[in-house]
Amino acid sequence: MEIIICANETRVGEIGAAKVAQLAARVGPKVVLGVATGSSPLATYQELAKLVAAGELDLSAASAFALDEYVGLPLTHPESYHATIARTVTVPLGLDPARVHVPDGDPTHLDTAGARYEAAITQAGGVDVQILGVGANGHIGFNEPTSSLRSRTRIKTLAPRTITDNARFFDSAAAVPRHCITQGIGTIMDARAIVLVATGETKAAAMAAIIEGPITSMWPGSALQLHPHATCVIDEAAASGLKLKNYYQQVYANLPDWQRLDV
Ligand code: F6R
After folding, report:
1. Domain count, the chain
2. CB distance 67 to ligand 1 below 6 Å
C-alpha cells in the first residue's frame, strides 16, 4: 500500500486530486471512475474541478460509478446519493450524466439491483480509479464490520455508528435510512487502482487498522492490504495512530521525483 501523509485536509484534497488525475490520464479520456460520497472526498473533488476548469483534465468522456445509495430515499432528496453525486461530482467535474451511475435504492427493485449494478460495471469495462473514504468503524462503501471480504453489490443494514455519524446530513439520527445498497468489498477490490482519502482524529483508529492491522472483516478496509495498487492519502490527524508513520514519511520523501506528487 502506498501511504501519503499530508500536513492538513486541504493538502489531502490537492494530493488526492493529483493522484486521481495522474491515474486517470494514464487510462485516457474514457476512464471509468469509482466515486464515494460523504465529506472525505469533497476537497479532492473540488481540486479535480479546478483541474477540469483549467483545461488540465478532461472528464467529459469518462464514466463514473458511485459506491452506494440509501434504500427508500427519493432520488430528489438532497441527501440521496443520486442527488449528492450529481451536485458534488457530475456537475463540477464536467461528467456526462448519462454515464454516471448510482445503485438503485428503490425498495420495489431491490431483488435485482445488485446484479444490475455489477453488470453495468462489467459492461463499462470495470472501474479504473476508485476514490474511497472510510468510516470511523473501518467500513468502505457501506460494507460494515463483518461484511464478507469477497462480497458483491447488495443490500446492507447500516451499523449504529454509521447512523450516528451520518445523522449530520439529516434532521436527526431517526431520519437516517436503516438500509443501503452498496458495492461489495470484492467489487471495490476489482478496481484497477484505489485512492482512499481520510482526514481527522476520528479516522485514526480505522486507518491504523487498515494499514497496519491484520486483514479482518471487523475492519473492512483492511482488505485493501491485498490490493496491488492502493494509495491512502491522509492527514496528520488520521495518521496519528500509525506505528510506522515515520517510516511511511521516509519512504515518500525518498521516492524518485517522477513518482512524487509534491507533498
Ligand atoms: C460513501 C461511503 C462511505 C464513506 C464513509 C466516510 O459513499 O461509501 O464509506 O466514505 O462513511 O464518510 P465521511 O467521508 O463523511 O466521513
Report:
1. 1
2. yes
* Residue among 134, 156, 181, 199 whose CB has most ligand 1 atoms within 8 A, to mutate: 134
Question: Is a pLDDT exceeding 60 seen at residue 241?
Answer: yes
Cell of 88: 458534488
Kindly report the backbone phi and psi dihedral angles of residue 119, in degrees, each rounded to the nearest multiple of 5, phi listed first: -65, -35
Residues in the chain: 263
Burial class (CB in 10 A: 0-12, 13-18, 19+), 258: exposed
27 within 8 A of 129, measured Cβ to Cβ: yes
Range(s) of the domain holding residue 67: 2-259
Tell me what pLDDT residue 197 has: 98
| Average pLDDT of the chain, as a whole number | 97
Percent pLDDT > 70 in the chain is: 99
The residue contributing the CA closest to ligand 1 atom 10 is 133
What is the model's pLDDT at position 205? 98
Active site residue 246: no
Backbone CA torsion sign across 124, 127, 133, 139: positive
Domain containing residue 52: CATH number: 3.40.50.1360
Residue carrying C-alpha cell 493538502 = 11
